[in-house]
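Handout, section B. The chain below has 65 residues.
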Amino acid sequence: MSTSIRVSEQTKEKLDRLKRDSESFDELLRRLAADEQPIEIGAWDSETADRAREAIDRSRESFER
């Protein structure tokens, strides 16, 4: 079964930039909607700090394109 969703042209362009070459839009949306481990507030170990930096970098990249 398939479902259609409406998005603005601007949103579609952003999704196009986030989509990997071999990825369908369904796979893209599933990846974007996947639950990530929450980042806890407080003193972070290096692994948590690295995850936070990566999340920030991904966010910045999505707005730069």
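Note. Residues 47 and 53 are 10 Å apart (CA to CA). Compare this with the example in section A.
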